[in-house]
Fold these 2 entries.
Entry 1:
Amino acid sequence: MINPVVVFGEETKPPNSDVLFLYENLPAVTGTGIFDHDQLVLSAYSALVMDAATGQVLFAKNPHQARAIASTTKIMTALVAIECGNLNSATSVSQRAAGVEGSSVYLKPNEKLTLEQLLYGALMRSGNDACVAIAEQIAVREDIFVGFMNMKARQLGAKNTHFCNSNGLPNDHHYSSAYDLALITRAALKNPVFSRIVSTKTHVIPGTEGKRLLSNTNKMLWSYQGADGVKTGTTNAAGKCLVSSASRDGRRLIAVVLHSDDRWNESIKLLNYGFNRFEQRRVVDAGKTFASVEVRDGVLGRVPITVNRDVVVTVPIDRTGKLEQEVMLERKISAPVFPGQVVGKLQVLVEGQPVGGASLLTLQGTKKIPYYQSVWRRF
């Protein structure tokens, strides 16, 4: 159980309020977020490294700048297709899909492939034709499927993103940002099918037109320890782009570089920076007693509370700072109280910046005492 210091500041409620704020100072660490820009010199117009578990940004350069993103678009294409489609369903490739320009897996009109086979072609070989075939299989028309992509982007909070096609072919109104791509990738990597495909080095697609041997365009899978994704992208407008991921010692990082002169080495710099200079710290465990709250007219005068989920944050390992817990908790709750009842919120801050949080729940319930006993107590 924590022993927080109660502070009533300008932004807190006064002592006679029904809500109080608690602050606990924890062992010294430093802040996360965007800092020490001089530590990384990158040619990329936009760049970012994010902790996949916590969503914290560890370094960024122009993270919210909307830019052309080329075939990194296919991350969203695959995510929507996996969530909406049946991997084993097979449909015939249309003339339109087979005739798409640019990077291709050379689909033939009327050729039948499953959705899973098309996803391998789109994510590993970066097939523009495979993306259109996927879109038509899911939504009949590509423009309808693109609407699903934009809807998913809004759901994920990707505010600087708009798609006009399923494959990333140049369009002035087709764009995203380094931060948005990291958000989308973080969501996609939680899907085991997506994670399996983007970590595959080579794959064979059987078909009526013969076998297709695919080799992943992401060279990081061969050259970087722990690399397990994600997607390359190249056009004249977007330059050389790469969204990469890697896992080490139970941590997974996502790196994004857009319009880079050296996307491989700059991605390695970002990932090394995240792995070497940061660590994860477990702050609170779900199910364990965190504090207690007073109960009005209850058989029990107080009940223990916990958090609804484990709270883990990413912190730098080489600087001194402060990790804080900010608790907003009801002063007193009325009986009856039920286990799992929400009574407040916890927010974790590093150097004053929020980096995680959870809801506060009652661990134990209590019945309400009879009316005559409550009157006697008040007397």
Note: The longest helix spans residues 142-156.
Entry 2:
Amino acid sequence: MGANTAENTNLRLKAVLDVLTEEVWTGEKLNAGAVLGEAIARVPLNDHERELLSGGIPRGHKTLTTATSKLVKAGWLVKGRSGWSITDDGQRATVAFAEPVAFSAALDAGTPVPAGTPLPSAPAAKPAKATKAAKATKAAKAEEAPSKTGTVADKAAKLVEEAVAPVAKVVRKRKPAAKAPAAAETAAAAAEAPAVSVETIEQPEAVAVAGDFNVLLGAPANWAPQYDEAQMELDQVDQLWKIAADIPAGFYTFKIALNRSWDENYGAFGVFDGPNHEVHHGGGLLVIQYDHRTRDIVLP
């Protein structure tokens, strides 16, 4: 671990490249949040970095998220709709600047990767030499006790869950489902009510609420549809995209942006690239729903 947040952040940026390089070797694809989570697992937050900011996100997590732009600027990282990927130069940087001090200096100074630097080599797979008896013993032990080692994704997901646990109580809250009526009442209601079908349409890959309150959701910046914190979730039942968050009272403006960019966005009354949606919020839980069939939003 470094002596301060700046050093720790650079160590975690190197860990981000290491994780993405391992993805290339294994073929295991992690989302951006899991990559950040694994980087923090390898370089844990100190007490100062664990302090929660106004959006409920740990200081060190937000600092790292913002700092990844340095990797993009260096040409070592690409942030796409389907996730993050490391470039060949990014892989070579892990070889050329293997030592933390050298990596930090190169990243801060914008030093290019020296010509001729090879790509890192994947670790050699260990040959399996276990006998049948050994395999049987190992299988028996596995049945007696759960494995103590998880995948990189498991560890990353657990870390992110622990790091942002305080946010879970206020961000993306969902209304509890109504209690199901008794079986007899349900059957009677079904017999009387006409069949209802919800039109299923082709949906975008992602839908974001991009506005002047994204930082309250934990995003590094406002009006930035690329961040995970701004993304809505599709309800497969009613085909509505939804997001809910507990935010302070105020006057807020926003738009609906598709596929993590501004290329396709909708404003008031579902107008393409139209005026901002406006909402006077009294404080507490704000629920926003987007209907891609009409391109408009609903505030229930």
Note: The longest helix spans residues 5-26.
